[in-house]
Structure formats: structure tokens, C-alpha cells
Design a protein that fits this description.
This protein has about 120 residues and is an all-beta fold. The chain is built from no helices and 10 strands. This is Bacterial Ig domain-containing protein.
């Protein structure tokens, strides 16, 4: 088994399946694969938020589009600056609100969601 940190994007590998049955190993033929390029936007961060805040900030990949969502309120979209910082004016945050943030960089898949 190869751990993800032991391979690089675009690396060529040969893989095979090994099944053990009745005390005997059965091996498939080698199959060539290429490790896919990591094509997902990095997960953005959110600075601490408290009830009453109407501005939220954090970091993301520089130049990425950042979408901030608070429950059923309209999403707010901003762009991270050249250093990756972003700030958004949002409807006032209430106690118990769940703020989520997703970033997207041109040519990459959207990031995982952060809260």
C-alpha cells in the first residue's frame, strides 16, 4: 500500500490487486495509472466570528472567489486579494448562526467547505 504523501501529482505508477484465499495469494496483472493533479482550491479560513458582527474576514488562495453563507440568508461573494486576505460585509450574525465559506480559483475545483 502506498500512502498519499508518498506519491506526487502526475507520477506514473503500476498497481495490482492481491487477494488471499485459502492461504494462497492471487495477484492481478499490473495496471498503469497516473496520479491525478491536485486540482482542488485550498480550504479557506474564517477569522473568529461573534454575535453582532456584520463583517467577516479570513484567508483563501490569492485571487480566489470566496462565497460566505449564513443559513438561509443570501450568500455574499468577495474576492481574496493578492495576499489571500478577504473581508465581507454580511447581514448581522446572530447567536447560533452557522457561517460557511467556500473558495474557488479559476481552473480548479471548489474548495471543501469551512465553518
Amino acid at each position: 500500500m502506498i500512502a498519499p504523501d508518498q506519491v506526487a501529482p502526475e507520477e506514473n505508477l503500476n498497481v495490482a490487486a492481491i487477494v488471499t484465499a485459502g492461504g494462497k495469494d492471487y495477484r492481478s496483472a499490473n495496471t498503469p495509472i497516473t496520479v491525478p493533479e491536485d486540482n482542488q482550491t485550498g480550504i479557506p479560513t474564517i477569522d473568529p466570528v461573534t454575535a453582532g458582527d456584520d463583517t467577516i474576514s479570513g484567508t483563501a488562495e490569492p485571487g480566489s472567489t470566496v462565497t460566505i453563507t449564513n443559513g438561509d440568508k443570501d450568500p455574499v461573494v468577495v474576492e481574496a486579494d493578492e495576499e489571500g486576505n478577504w473581508t465581507a460585509e454580511v447581514p448581522e450574525v446572530s447567536e447560533g448562526d452557522t457561517i460557511t465559506v467556500v473558495a474557488e480559483t479559476d481552473g480548479k475545483d471548489p474548495s471543501a467547505q469551512s465553518q
